[in-house]
Amino acid sequence: MRELRFRAWNEHDKLMADPFGLRENLMWRSKHETAVTYKALMPEDIVMQFTGLKDKNGEDIYEGDIISLIGATYTYVVKFEDYKFVCDHHNKPFGRWGDIYKFKELNFEIEIIGNIYQS
Asked: How far is CA 113 from the centre of its chain?
């Protein structure tokens, strides 16, 4: 069973944050260089879901992440569509790769190289 976790992008403050107590009180936290900030989750914040996968460095892969396959030339954007996580080519007109879990089944090493909000 996949663990359900989320993160949020706050466009106003330009911060990516891990939701904290998302179900209980709709709060999220942002880690700055020296402090942790807690704010209320606002309707305009963009919430992204964890795919259940980690990249080669152990980082959690979320929708909105831009990923690269080690040894490949293309990059992909992770999206949640039609009840599954899919990968669209990033900055290329080639269309969709498909289900992100296929990368793992084919033993590709995935690396997060950014996300669509902070790139």
From this structure: 11
